[in-house]
Each structure stands twice: as C-alpha cells, then as structure tokens.
Amino acid sequence: MSVFTRTALAAALLAAAPMAFAATDTDTMNVSIQIENECSVAAEDMSFGTQTDLSADITSTADVTVDCTNQGSIEVAFSAGGSSDFTNRTMENADGVTIDYQLYNAATGGAVLGDGSGTTTTFAGTSTGGAQTFTVYGEVPGGQGAKPVGNYSDAITATLTY
C-alpha cells in the first residue's frame, strides 16, 4: 500500500470518526395564542316625549349597541328599574306618583326584556368583531288616568356579559 493511499485512508477514517459517535435528540416546540374578546355596551336614553293624555298606548324605542373586538358569545340583560319588578316597571315623579311602562324585544308581540329569569328575555348572540345594535321597544300602556304634571323617570341598567 502506498504512502498516499495510507494517508488518504487515515484521513477518511479520522473524518468519519466523529460521525460514528454523533447522537441526536428532538423536542417539540408548541406555538399558541389565546384570543380574548373585549366588549363595551352603550344604551341610549328612551323618551316617551311630552304627553297630555295617557288614555292610549304610547310607544318609543332606544338602541343598545354592543361593540366587541372579536367573535364570541354575548348577552345583554336589563334590570327591573326602581320598581324591582320586571312585570310592573314604573316611572316615578318627585312625589312618588308612578306611571306604568314596559320594555320589549320587538315592536309587537315581543317578550319583556329582563335578566332572563321567569318570562323575561335578554338580547343574546355572537359578537361579530364590531358594533351590533339591538332595538329596545318601550310602551306606556293607555288607560292609566290623569296624573300630576311633571317629570317621571326610571333608571334601567343594561349589563353585558361576554
């Protein structure tokens, strides 16, 4: 065997030696992100205007807007107001005299808006990743008779759960 052949063979064996002792190891890297929804609710005031007669029904509407950054379940519930009774909401003047009214989810034949308990309903659905508007329909039922002049009001809280 020539010196050149022996040298080439030795070089090849030395080069292969580290590979003969090489080892490998693997691990998995998980990649993730969690998306959350950030939402807000804005409820317009509802006014039944200035009235001189409560013999006939008086209606009004107000919008409730839900604005979310992403898609997810949403629910808007409404308080009973000062009367603490979903079935008998009242507006009251400074002397404690009341006028009955109600809030519904539709103009005619709608369900009473509340917290979902009993026969009340809420606005529920899936957010779109933008603003969504729901209409609240209000009614002062006629036949309530004469009332003292002045301002009558109630405060309803709209609560958004998302």
Compile the SSE list and pairings.
Blueprint: H1 3-20, E1 39-43, E2 58-68, E3 73-78, E4 89-92, E5 98-104, E6 123-126, E7 131-140, E8 158-161
Antiparallel strand pairs: 1-2, 2-7, 3-6, 3-8, 4-5, 5-7
pLDDT < 50 stretches? none
CATH architecture designation: Sandwich
How many independent structural domains? 1
Structural class: mainly beta
Strand percentage: 25-35%
Number of strands: 8
Radius of gyration: 35 Å
What is the name of the CATH topology?
Immunoglobulin-like
Question: Mind summarizing the main beta sheet?
Answer: 5 strands, antiparallel
| String of helices and strands | HEEEEEEEE
Distance between the termini: 84 Å
Shape: rod-shaped
Question: How many DSSP helices?
Answer: 1
The CATH homologous superfamily is called Fimbrial-type adhesion domain
Helix content: 10-25%
Quaternary state, please? Answer: single chain
Q: In CATH, what is the class?
A: Mainly Beta
> On the 0-100 scale, what is the average pLDDT?
92
Strand neighbour order, sheet with most strands: 1-2-7-5-4
